[in-house]
Fold this protein.
Amino acid sequence: MTAIESVTGAPHARIYGIGAYRPSRVIPNSEVVEAIDSSDEWIQQRSGIKQRRWATPEETVQLMSVTAARQALERSGVDARQIDCVIVATVSHMFQTPAIATAIAHELGTDQAAAFDISAACAGFCHGLALASDMVRGGSAGYALVIGVERLSDLTDVGDRGTAFIFADGAGAAVVGPSDTPAIGPVVWGSDGEQYGLIQQREDWRDVVASDHPQMPHLVMQGNPVFRWASFVMAKVGQQALDRAGIRADQLDCFVPHQANMRITDAMARAMKLPDNVKIARDIAEQGNTSAASIPLALDRMYAEGDAKTGDTALLIAFGAGLAYAAQVVVLP
Ligand code: UT7
């Protein structure tokens, strides 16, 4: 048998910098309540959301991604030409093919970086981070760019009580590259396809086209079972990610869960017995649930508000449609 050459990469990987893009249209609860017979009080009590941002037509998936990525590159001190792979986590790029990642890689000025989209819904950013970390360590990329981006307003039925007040738009990005010390912990990830139908596009595109009254196949969610699953099962996944990284809860500085619901965040923090001094991401209050973008957006706010700083240890955990989930401990850039 002829042996083929193999490669290895850096001993470890780390995040070099985070970038964010928040769309310009701020939508307070007062603007969504009428269509769903709800109230500002109910939305705040049940979800913690005060407002969200919805993109204008000009704020495309590509524009938001490129802007967030440029900020991440600048903060990282990494040139776009050093990026070997661009991973875009999204469910709201409206073309089945090609992936938006290739257009983003081109606009950023990468040197024909490998580029592809991944579909892991709200868990997409943590999936992308795990892939990027393994690429850097495996030798298939020197630096990789992970983008989480959504325009969920395109897929949201403003008259649906279960989702209209939750979903929102935005983009976040992270540059991942080599490190001398471990700074992206082992990923704990998985899926529960038995609950496939709990969050999904209402119908297949072929059924939309065949319909007498074609309508956007909006996202539908059975919120309560997802809520219970996220609050209880995900806390165990978070604990496993801490264990696999060899980190105790009292060594953690920041907890950055997917911004799905403030009550889910609080339930997970309680279940993992996080000490009071752990800073908890609460970007959902201002930003809504931006799916794949929510973790980098939340991190960006934590830096801006002084709740996160270079060298902090943070637990990231993301979960959503599929149901898919992923968690890892990282050292913050
Ligand atoms: O990002 C991906 C992962 N997604 C999530 O993790 C989301 C998880 N789910 C949730 O965040 C929550 O389930 C929601 C915020 C969506 C809903 O909160 P809930 O506590 O699960 O409410 P519920 O669906 O159990 O409904 C409670 C009550 C019901 O009334 P009764 O039967 O108690 O009289 C609903 O009819 O609230 C009513 N209700 C509403 N009232 C005002 C449901 N939706 C609304 C609404 N406004 N929009």
In short: The pocket of oxa(dethia)-CoA is lined by residues 36, 38, 42, 46-47, 122, 161-162, 165, 199, 223-224, 226-227, 230, 260-261, 264, 289, 291, 320 (CB under 6 Å). The radius of gyration is 19 Å. The chain has two domains: 12-179, 188-331. Residues 128 and 327 are 11 Å apart (CA to CA).
